[in-house]
Amino acid sequence: MPNLSSYLMKSLSNIDLGENTLWNPVIHPSATAPVGPSLGQLYFNTVEEALKIWVGSSWVSLAAGSGSSTTTSDTSLLTEGPSGDTLLI
């Protein structure tokens, strides 16, 4: 089996895609939440089969099409979208 570590890229700073598209990203899958998360960090909970985001005090599920939503008073995760709507990042 080839050594795949030579193909991995590690970035120690922000990555600006210059308005280009990121194709086929894989969100970190794990049965347990990461330890010491950063604000806005994402992971996919493989037990609950749910995408989770760290909002500074807890992990919140990001549900698509379930008819439910989660609100937070943490405005650091909010940004204005292109049409002026508020988006949760």
Form type:
globular
Instruction: Give the count of helical stretches.
Output: 0
Q: Please, what is the oligomeric state?
A: single chain
Question: How large is the share of residues in beta strands?
Answer: 15-25%
The number of E-state strands comes to: 6
Mean pLDDT: 77
Termini separation:
39 Å
> What structural class do the secondary elements suggest?
mainly beta
Q: What percent of residues adopt helix (DSSP H or I)? A: under 10%
Tell me the Rg in angstroms: 16 Å
Low-confidence stretches: 79-87
The largest sheet has its strands arranged as 1-2-3-4
Order of helices and strands: EEEEEE
Main sheet characteristics: 4 strands, mixed
Structural write-up:
By secondary structure, this protein is mostly beta strands. The protein is built from no helices and 6 strands. The strands form 2 sheets. It has a 4-stranded mixed sheet, with no helix packed on it. A hairpin with a 5-residue loop joins strand 5 and strand 6. It is globular, with a radius of gyration of 16 Å.
Summarize the structure.
By secondary structure, this protein is mainly β.
List the main descriptive attributes of the protein structure presented here.
about 90 residues; mainly beta; about 0% helix; about 25% strand; disordered C terminus
Task: Describe how the helices and strands are arranged.
Blueprint: E1 29-30, E2 42-45, E3 50-54, E4 59-62, E5 78-80, E6 86-88
Parallel strand pairs: 1-2
Antiparallel strand pairs: 2-3, 3-4, 5-6
